[in-house]
Amino acid sequence: MIAPWLWRGIPSGHDFEFHMNSWMEVAAQWGNHILVPRWAAQASYGYGEPRFIFYPPLSWTLGALLGSILPWKLAPAAYVVCVLTLAGCFMFLLAREYLPPNQAIFAALFYTLNPYYIVIVYWRSAYAELLAGALLPLLLFFILRLERNGRRAVIALALVVAAGWYSNAPAAVMINYSAAILIAVVALRRKSPQILLLGGLAILLGAALAAFYILPAAYEQKWIQISQVLSPGVRPQDNFLFTTVTDADHNRFNLLVSLVTSR
Questions:
Q1: Is the Cβ–Cβ distance between 213 and 165 less than 8 Å?
Q2: 19-52 residue pLDDT tens
Q3: CA–CA gap between residue 251 and residue 236 (Å, rounded)
Q4: Domain edges within the chain
Q5: Where are the alpha helices (DSSP H) in 100-210?
Q6: Hey, is 95 helix, strand or coil?
Q7: Among 74, 96, 175, 227, which is disulfide-ready with 164 (CB 3.0 to 4.6 Å)?
């Protein structure tokens, strides 16, 4: 995935500067003995913003950690390698339940290098979303094990749901919807109300484990203009497949993602 970086350089996608600045800010605050940053002092041209209250912590913690032990120019590559390795391992864990080892390895490699991941790495630089995507195979893996492993699967599934919240908020919403649908389908196919009960318990427990992020973000919404999250161009209605708006760059990217999806 990152081999072209050796001669083409680091791709600066939509969110690259945001993530790199966040990682550097966190590393600097760690140097000042602030272990859990809440205010990004250097953001917004030095005026600062409450970025770390609203942006989940896993991606910027991993990025800052890598930047603290490696040169900053290597941190993005190391981040992508770490996350895609996790994604491949988790997909292999799921695939080996149903496929021979060689085919499970192929499934893991295909998931790691799937077209949308390439779009994320090279066009969007959406590093938090990349991290959340690595959790999806684990989500299905532990849902399928709810009936067999009972309490252990509930705890594991709850940890996956919590990790989703700590990785990327929109992805966490989709993870919760997906989990609810998958749990209902598995329970219906196996005719097991127990799966519904255990799955619902896991989702609630996952939200409770993520309360460290969810509660402050929910409470402090009144102190910011949260409506800006859905400004023109990032609203759902502006981002359906093959949608066009007045922004040429937006239309170009939407067309690319739509073509990748349709194939």
A1: yes
A2: 999 999 999 999 999 999 999 998 888 899 999 9
A3: 14
A4: 135-209
A5: 101-112, 115-119, 127-133, 136-144, 146-149, 151-167, 169-190, 193-209
A6: helix
A7: 175
